[in-house]
Structures are given as structure tokens and as C-alpha cells.
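Study the following:
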Amino acid sequence: MRPKLLNVKITIPFLGEIGGAWEPADAEQRAAWELYVELVTRVSVAPLREDEGSAREALTSMYVLFATVRDILKRYGPDVAPPRVRDEVSFGALAVTVLNRAVRLVLSKWHPQLTAWESSAPAGRSAVEHENTWQEIGALRADLDSLRLVLLELAQVLGNVAGAADLIGPPQVVPAQASQASVASQTPAPRGPAVS
């Protein structure tokens, strides 16, 4: 069920909070679903542990969000960014603010520095190995993790607006042996006429 009115708050490190009341229009709900799917299927909301993935892939995934949001905004038009009254938000306002005030800051700080480090890779060393020897990799990963939390908040808001199930949290998976044991221990239901 889609909410009629939301009170939204997203915290952006070092900048503060954005938010307010949001009564999403139909176009905003559809746009929210599209961006929600983009966010939950990217590395952007998944933790980037020290021993897996690469910061370059994470930065590239963040960069692609600009084109995605731009496409959604152009396709849905001004219906997803209506003029705001004080203390109100819209899909357009939230998406653009998060991109410009959070994602852009991380990209503009770290993309040139990582590119410079990548260009110094010795022959025979993989890109990931070289990346992990960089003295700044810990700080970059910390900034990516802070940004991930902002995008996670945005994704949760968008999922609520779209009326979607939580696709971010871990699914409830029953191990195969446990489910077979529980099926075997159940007594079969009595058979009777089919009811339609």
C-alpha cells in the first residue's frame, strides 16, 4: 500500500538534513520505484568490505546514478518536481539534492585522486591489488560507506513511496535441510473436495 503523506528526512554528512512533508503524486510513485530498483541493485547500498570489490567500481556505480536520475527526471517531467511550498519535498528535489550534495562531493574529491593513483600502477600488478596499496584507500572507503548510508536512506524512502517490499534487507532463507525436515514432520491435510 502506498502512503498518502510521508514525513521524510535524509541526513547528509557534513551538510545536515533534507526533508519535509511529501504527498507523492502518481508520477512520483512510479519514478520512486524506478530509482529504488536502480539503488537496490547497485553496489551503492551494499557495504564495500575491505576484502572485496573495488573502490573504482563503487565510484563508477555512483557516477552512473547521475545519468539514471537525469533520465527519470526527463521522462516524467515536471510532475516529479512540482513547485514546493516551505517544508515540502518532491521526488525531484530529493533525488537532485542527494546527487548534488552527497554523491557529487564524493566523486569530485576521490575520482581524480584515484585516477592519479591508478596511473602509477607497476606492470604486472592487478588494478585491485594496486588500489589496495594506496595510502588513501581507507579514507576513500570510509567516504563511500558514509555515502552508502545516505543512499540507503533515500532508497528506503523511495521504497515506501512506491509501496514496495523491502528489497534491501537480507531475505529470510530457510536452509534446505531444515525445510525438508519441517515438510517431513507435517501431517498431511485431510483430502476433500476442491473449493474454488
Observations:
- Confidence is low (pLDDT under 50) at residues 181-196.
- Strands lie at 6-12, 16-22.
- Helices lie at 26-40, 55-76, 91-118, 127-132, 137-162, 176-185.
- The longest strand covers residues 6-12.
